[in-house]
Specification:
The complex is a heterodimer of chains A (about 325) and B (about 300).
Chain A: H1 4-12, H2 23-63, H3 76-82, H4 85-116, H5 124-132, H6 139-149, H7 160-163, H8 179-204, H9 208-216, H10 221-232, H11 234-249, H12 253-262, H13 270-280, H14 284-312, H15 315-320
Helix pairs in contact in A: 2-14, 3-14, 4-8, 4-11, 5-8, 6-8, 6-12, 9-10, 11-14, 13-14
Chain B: H1 2-7, H2 10-16, H3 20-46, H4 51-56, H5 68-114, H6 120-130, H7 136-148, H8 155-163, H9 166-179, H10 182-190, H11 195-224, H12 227-232, H13 241-249, H14 262-296
The chains are: A mainly alpha (about 325), B mainly alpha (about 300).
Chain lengths: ~325, ~300
């Protein structure tokens, strides 16, 4: 991109050259430049106000109105949400889902990225490309592919355990007991490579000298990976975990498609329930309250995760324990 | 693993061209690659089977008699040939959104990076904060607002909200801060150019690689989007591919819905992802940079 010097100069901002000029015209000039800078943000801010901030505020207002009369009812809708068993089982299902799926996916992504970054790896570029391909596949299409592949009628491999006498019937990953895990398989397929790509580029930013120094000290590749590289990309790991938490709580596309294909149920996730409340039952006020609560849960989950890893980052923890 | 590596002398290891860690690691990489490729490979194979062949022939092998041609004909003629319109619509939504989102985000990011003005920090706070808001919280009220503005079921109704791309602004402000030297802007000013002219003459060409990244991210994001168009669009002729194929897939299990659409859904899915998968080796570099700059900027 650019050299460090250019970055340092740009930090002082435009107008730095004019420092020698007389005071008042320079001020006026800077004010005019500032106005131009603000003007550049106006198209974005206008769109943001209408299509982002507006709906967000409207969502909160709507959640305080009565579904029947549309009159102000205070927190009535929120009380309905808190007593809605279906909604909360959807939320807990997603928390359970996230605890398993996000752990597996991030673990896989870290393992793959560290190995691709190691000197033992052959064909690094090709593998990195292959793993990243699912990023170009829409969640809907991923769910359609896997939804078909996970049906015993369409995939003879699922009948093999039965043919070998190991199971009483064909394995159906889309039945009510296994469908949650089938979605985990699909979401892991979709996003492991995406997370690995972020980690891999972060790893290439690890200073070469640090690795060389560790090698001189007789560090094995495994301990370089575990004790030097991994701690150095810690922030990136935290970042992708937070993105995954947000994504998990919003899960929608995959369960909707699997329900189309294999009737796994239409109130599997909070987002499906919100969609049904608004568009099948026409109760936009309650749906607004449900989505505000979901946003709050997302923020709380993110903050809890962040505080937990923050505490571990305490420098004294390293010297005290481990 | 380590024992084996150290007991074998380095000379014999070289002569065999064999390293245990490399072998075990490569085997693991290959297994992961099979997991990634298998469903796409299956989609390619299955797209040339008719419904009967899908249920009777070997899952991962092509059929003896290819039905690709009849599948293609049926895909493009079924229900008034809606599929081709979904394809055109997806192209319109993705191209228009990516173009406008890139333009708006680039201008804003450049303005934030290169100028000091009152409220600049507030705009930054707004953008970073909005990255945390789940899209769900916006969709229901967005539908109601667009309904009042007569924007539902229109192209601009889908494109306008997707043009708001806070990540793009965030990305471009970091990119511009690093890439565009302040001295260059100043020298352009001394030549008497206005601020917008300076942006056009100096900023735009330097920011072009970043704009390519943003365009691709926004294009892929819009092409893949499902929830927003599902909520905002009612008529089938306005659907993008994701919503259309989802509608067809919902007919698979309904009794009495007419012929089951297995071949059409499979071939339609394949054609909707094939161009991007073929182009991906060339685009990967730009896309990966966009994801990474966002992640690493916090460090």
């Amino acid at each position: 991109m650019s050299t460090d010097t250019a970055g340092a100069i740009s930090l002082r901002g435009p107008g730095a050259l004019a420092e020698s000029g007389p005071m008042r015209p320079q001020r006026r000039l800077q004010a005019a430049q500032g106005r131009a800078g603000f003007a550049m943000t106006v198209p974005f801010l206008a769109l943001f106000a209408v299509f982002f901030a507006g709906p967000l505020v409207y969502s909160i207002v709507l959640s305080l109105r009565s579904p029947l009369t549309n009159a102000f009812t205070g927190l009535l809708n929120y009380r309905t949400v808190f007593h809605n068993g279906e909604y909360w089982s959807g939320v807990t299902r997603m928390l359970y889902f996230g605890a398993i799926q996000v752990s597996i996916m991030i673990g896989l992504a870290i393992g793959l990225a560290l190995f691709l970054d190691s000197p033992y790896c052959r064909g690094r570029r090709l593998f990195a490309l292959v793993y990243f391909i699912p990023f170009a596949v829409p969640g809907v299409i991923a769910a359609i592919m896997w939804g078909f592949l996970l049906q015993p009628d369409l995939n003879s491999a699922l009948k093999v355990p039965h043919d070998l006498g190991l199971a009483s019937g064909a394995i159906n990953p889309l039945d009510y007991r296994l469908s949650l895990y089938a979605i985990m398989l699909i979401v892991t397929w979709e996003f492991t490579g995406y997370n690995m790509t972020i980690l891999l580029t972060s790893l290439t930013n690890v200073p070469h000298q640090v690795i060389e120094a560790a090698k001189v000290d007789g560090c094995s590749e495994l301990s370089i990976a575990a004790r030097i590289k991994l701690p150095l990309i810690r922030r990136t790991v935290i970042f992708i975990v937070i993105l995954s938490i947000i994504g998990t709580l919003q899960l929608f596309n995959e369960p909707v498609i699997l329900n189309n294909i294999a009737s796994i149920g239409n109130s599997f996730t909070p987002n499906q329930i919100i969609y049904n409340t608004a568009f099948s039952f026409g109760n936009e006020q309650l749906a607004a309250a449900q989505s505000v609560v979901l946003a709050a849960i997302t923020i709380v989950a993110t903050v809890i995760f962040f505080t937990a890893v923050r505490r571990k980052m305490d420098p004294f923890a390293v010297t005290r324990g481990r | 693993m380590k024992e084996v590596a150290t007991t074998t002398s380095s000379r014999s290891r070289r002569s065999f061209g064999f390293n245990v860690k490399t072998t075990v690691g490569t085997a693991a990489l290959l297994i992961a690659a099979v997991y990634v490729i298998a469903p796409i490979y299956w989609l390619v194979v299955a797209s040339s089977k008719n419904t009967g062949q899908l249920f009777s022939t070997s899952t991962f092998l092509p059929p003896a008699h290819l039905s690709l041609w009849s599948n293609l004909r049926s895909l493009f003629s079924y229900y008034g040939g809606n599929y081709k319109w979904w394809y055109v619509n997806s192209l319109i939504y993705a191209t228009a959104t990516a173009t406008f989102a890139t333009a708006v985000s680039t201008l804003c990011g450049y303005g934030l990076a290169k100028y000091r003005f009152l409220g600049r920090k507030a705009v930054f706070g707004l953008i970073v904060g909005s990255l945390m808001v789940p899209a769900t919280a916006l969709v229901v009220p967005l539908f109601l607002l667009e309904h009042d503005m007569h924007l539902t079921n229109t192209y601009q109704g889908v494109i306008l909200p997707l043009m708001v791309y806070p990540f793009g602004v965030y990305f471009m402000s970091i990119f511009a801060a690093e890439a565009v030297p302040g001295t260059l802007i100043d020298s352009c000013r001394i030549d008497g150019a206005g601020e917008f002219r300076t942006f056009w003459k100096i900023g735009r060409p330097i920011l072009m690689p970043g704009m390519v990244t943003l365009f691709l991210l926004s294009f892929i994001g819009t092409w893949n989007n499902y929830f927003l168009p599902l909520v905002l669009l009612g008529s089938e002729t306005r659907f993008p591919l994701t919503v259309g194929l989802s509608a067809w897939s919902s007919d698979l299990n309904l009794a009495g819905a007419g012929q089951p659409l297995y071949p059409e859904v499979i071939l339609g899915s394949l054609l909707s992802v094939l161009p991007m998968i073929i182009l991906f080796p060339f685009l990967q570099k730009y896309v990966a940079r966009g994801l990474t700059l966002g992640a690493v900027a916090g460090e």
